[in-house]
Structure formats: structure tokens, C-alpha cells
Predict the structure.
Amino acid sequence: MMDSAQQPDQPAIEGAAPKVDKRRKLFRLLGLAVLVAALVWGAYYWLFQRGLETTDNAYVAADSAVITPRLAAAVLEVRVADTDQVQAGDVLVVLDDADARVELAAAEAALRQAQQRFAQAQATGRQLGARVAGASADIAAASARLGAAQADLARASDAVARRTGLTGTGAVAGEELAQARAAEAQARAAVAAARAALASAQANRLAASGTADANAVITRVPSQAADPDVRAAQARVDAARLLLERTVIRAPLAGTVAQRNVQAGQQVAPGAPLLHVIPLAQAYVEANFRETQLAGVRVGQPVQLTSDLHGGDVVYRGRVSGIGAASGAATALIPAQNASGNWVKVVQRIPVRITLDPHDLAAHPLPVGASMEAEIDTRED
């Protein structure tokens, strides 16, 4: 009975053997296919993907200019709005210039006064020069008078001496001798007066020379513009004129207006941010790579980038222009303290600056903050 019961199972066992062989064959084929795919992928990676470092932690950035006033004034006019395109030198904001004009007028008046004082000092110098020359002439005249008086005194003295010798002989009367002596005394007095006049003339010339020298300190410069007082007054005029020019705020560079927070009639203070001008044509990408990816990254290596804004069909070309000196964690307001006992190592990200091709930017502009995907080819230095 057992033989009769086992007889129906024998065909089933015999039919299962081909199925097992077929399954093994399929597994071998599948394994072969997986091996071939792995080899193909390895070859593809070795030939095309090796040396490519990618990240999607990348964003568009630009060195924007913050527009601020340099003086306190009321806003008269705002000529731009957000998203406006401006060129370098375009007027952005106009401030009230009344105070600046008053300051400039006062500085110009002070400059004219300084110029007049210098001109007056020059005229005084010419007058003092003439006075010195006149004093010199007076000295010459006094010297001549002194010489004449001394000659008269010599003659008078000689006459007295001759008459004194003849008095005993009776040839000269006593009255004549007295007259000669009187003439001698008068000549001696004239000599003393001449000497006093000469001393007075010399003192006058000395005083005039001192005053002329003191005045020459003011006028002893190459020109009126070189006078210290005139230069100081001119500097105040230049500062006032510069202050007046600063009431018209212009764009320092070409770009797009953003974050405008100023209105006409608003009172602004020096240094208060009014708006931003972002040069989108000079935008760059800041890509944050893991520190384990940066071993082969060098400045100048080519980069291919795509943006979420334009999709993968638009490819931007770029170059690595710099590698950050610190990670974001190191420069954070509260840096991480890894000296605690529960420290967990975290792979840091280092910013890499990528300069974009200006032609690609012109064809497909990117706003600041847009997300990017970057791929650096480290096979090229």
C-alpha cells in the first residue's frame, strides 16, 4: 500500500528538477547582469564622474551697496523704487539743501575776508617799504646836516683859537673874541642837534623795518592762494560745497534697487540705510561643501552650476575664486564648544566662492539668494 501511495509523487519530483535548474540559471544571469552593470557604472564613474565634487547647498550672492546719507536733512524727492535698474551716477534721493547753501555762503564770505586781509597786508607791506626808504633818506639828510654842523664847529673853534692868541697884543678886541666864542657855542649846539636828528632818523628806520618784517611774515608766500588763512577759508568752502553736493545722493554703481525704506518728507540721519543697490551683473555663488570634499579643490578650477529658478536646462559656467577661511560654525555668533564630554563629531561645511560667467548671467539673470547646484571639476587646476 505504501508503494501504491508514493507512485503519484514521483512525476512531481521529476518535474521540479528542471524548474530548479531554470531558477539557478536566472539567478546566474541576474548576477551577471548586476556585475556588468556594476562594471559599467564603475567605468563610467572612473572616466566621467571621478574628481567631480557636487553640492546643492549653494546660493547666489552679490556685494550690494548700502545707500546712506552723510548729513541730517529732510528728504525732498525719491526717484527710484524697488526693482528699478540704475546706472552709476544716477540720482536716487534728493535731500533738502537749504542749510547746506547757507553754510556755503558763510564759508565763501569768510574766504573773501581772508583774501581781503591778505591784499591789505600786501598794501601795508608796500607802504612800510616806502616808510623804510623815507627813513633811510632822512638818515642821509641828517648825516649831511651833522657833517655841515661839524664843519661849522671846526671853523668856529679855529676862529676862537686865533683870536684868543691875539688878545694879549691888542690886535683883537674883547667883543670880537666874545662873538667868536658865541659862534663856536652855537656851532657846537648845531652839531648836537644834528646828531639827535640823525639818531631819530635811525630809530624811525629801525621801527619801520621791524613793522615791515612783521608784515612780511604774512605776505611772504608765493601767492594769495598759499596764504594759510586763505587756504583754511578755502578748505571750509570746499567742505561746504561738498556738503551741498551730498544733498543729491547718486548710485555708486550699476545695479538693481532693493529694500527701499525711505519716503519723501522723511527726516534722515547720517548713516541711516535708505536703500540697497545690488549689482546682479556681478553676482557670484557661495557654495558650502563638506570638508571631506575639499581635498582636491583649488582656485581657478571650472564649475558647472544649475539653478532651481531656471531648471537643469540652463547651465552656468564658473570658476572657483576663493575658499573660505572658516566654517559657518566657527564664525557663528555663539560658536560650538566641543570640549564637553558629550561631544559628537559633525562634518563641517566650508564656503567656496564661485565666480559666474558674465555672459551666462546676462542671458539668464539670477536674484540674490536663489538656490544653486554646483559641480566642481577637480581634475583641472
Summary: Confidence is low (pLDDT under 50) at residues 1-6. The longest strand covers residues 311-323. The helical segments are 2-6, 10-49, 98-166, 174-219, 228-245, 358-363.
